[in-house]
Please model this.
Amino acid sequence: MTVPQQLQSKQSGSKELGAFYTSKPVADFLVRWAVRNSLDSVMDPSVGSGVFLEAAAERLIELGGQSKNQIFGIEVDPETLESAKIRLNESGIPSSNLHLSDFFLVEPRPENLVKVIVGNPPFIRYQRFRNEERDRALQRAAECGVQLSQLSSSWAPFVIHSTAMLRKGGRLAMVLPAELAYANYAVPVLNFLVKSFGRVTLLTFKEKLFPHLSEDTLLLLASGRGEMTNEILHRDFDYVSSLANTRLSKNYSLYRTRHLNVQSILDRSEKLIEYLLPAKTRDLYNELRKSIYSLPLGSLAKTGIGYVTGANDFFHLSPAQVRSFSIPEEFLKRAVRRGRAFNGLRFTDDDWQRAISNGDSGYLLYVNGQGLPLPAGVLEYIRTGRERGIADAYKCRVRSPWYSVPHVNKADGFLTYMSGTAPRLVVNEANAVAPNTLHVLKMRSDNFTVRSLAVLWATSLSRLSAEIEGHALGGGMLKLEPREAERTLVARPDCESSEIDGLYTELDDRFRRGDEKAAREMVDKEILMKRLGLSSKECGMIVEGASILMNRRYRRTQ
Model:
C-alpha cells in the first residue's frame, strides 16, 4: 500500500480529532462478519487504539491467513499511531503496515484497494470540520459522485472514501453516528451505500455503544461492493454483549432482520426509529400520518430559533441590574431563557416573575434603533460590556453596533428545544421574547388559535410523533430542531378552534399541579377518541409507543 508523505504533527486529543475508541466486543463482531477467508486484505483507515486491526489479526490467524501481509492501517495523529504500533506489533502487524496520513490524502489506486474495511470514522461536527481539511474530504466524496452539504460532519465523506478503497465484492463494517438514519445531510450517504453494495444492514442498540458520549451510534454492515440493493436491513439489539452470541448464516447475513423500504427512508417518509415500535403501532401511526385526521405542526405555525446575543450573560439582565444602572423600560424586553420556566400550557406574567429567581427569565437589553438617544445608564452598561471584551465576541463584532441584538421577534408561543419526558409547547401570555435555547412559534392563520395548538400538542399523538421526528442526546434528552418540530404531527379534529380552546384552562391547571398522566388521559379522550374516533385500544397503542421510545432514551444512559 502506498500513502502520501507523512504529515506534520497535529495537536492530539479526542475532541479535536473526533476520536472515540470502540470496545473489543463491537470490534470483534464487525471483524467476524467482514473477514471471511484467509486471503482477505483488511484496512482500518482510522486506526485509533488499534482494536479493529488486533481483532483482524486474530481472525486471519483463525482462518489460516497472515496478518503480516494482509492488514493495513492509517492514522492522522502521530502519538496515537505510535501507541497503536506497540500494541499491534504483538499481533504480528509490522509498523511498516501502519501509516501516518490524513486518510483523504490516500488515493484509491489499484495497489491500495482492499477486500475489507473496518473501523470507527472520526466524528467532527461541521463547526470544527473546516478549511482545507473539509474541502479535501468533500472533494473525495464528489469524486465518487456524491455532493455533500457544507454542514456535513467528517464521518460522511469518510464512509464514501472508504467505499472507494474497496475491491469489487468488498465489505465495509463501521461504527457510525445515528445521524446516518435521520440527518438530512446523511441522505446522499445512504443513497450512495445502497447503490454501491448488494446488501446494507443497520444494527441499533437499546444500550449505548459509547455510554459517556452524547452522540448516539449504530453499526453499518455493507457487502457486495459494486452491486446495488433496493432495501435496507435492520436489527435492534438489547445489549452490546448480545453481539458475541449472534449467529451468522452461511452467507454471513443476520437472522431476525427487518426489511426497510429504501425510498421511504431516503425521502424521509419513514424513519428508522419507527421500526423500534410494535408493528401494529407503527401501522396505526402511518395511517394517521397519511389521513385527514392529522397535520404537521408547520402547517399551523412557523417554528424558528430565538435571537442570538453572542453573550447571554451580558445581554440578559436581572431586575437588580436594571435598577442598578437605571435602564429605562423602552430599552428592555421581558425574556424567558429556559424551558424550566414552563409549567403548564401557558407562560404568564406570574411565571415570568417566578423564573427570575433562578435565572430562567429576566430582561433582554434591547437597543435596536428606537430613534432615542441612549440614556446614561444604558451607555454605562454598554461600557462595562466593552471592558469585559463582549464587543469582540464573534456574534457581537460582526454587528453594527455590537450591542444591538437582531431578530428579536414577538412570539405567539414557545416550544422547548431540548426536553426530558416530552417537548413543551406553551402560549406566550407574558409577551416575552426568547433566545435560541428555545423555539419561537408564530401562528400562520388567525383562524386557528395558539391556545388550541397548545391543547393539541399535549396529546399522546404529538408526543409519539416528537419522539420519531426528534433525536436523542446524552442524558436521555430529546432534541427537536426547527424542521423536526414542524414535521411533528398534531391531531386535526373536525371542530371549531373555539371548542378546543375550552380544554385549555383545565389542562393548564392539571399540568401545573404535576398531574401529567391525568392531563394526557383527558386530552387523549377528548381529542383522539371523541374527535378523531380512535378506540380505547388504539389510543393505548399510541400512548405505549410514545413511552417505548421515551424509555429507550433514558435506558440508554444508565
Q: What stands out?
A: The first strand starts at residue 42 and ends at 44. Confidence is low (pLDDT under 50) at residues 5-18. Residues 301-555 form one domain. The chain has two domains: 19-276, 301-555.
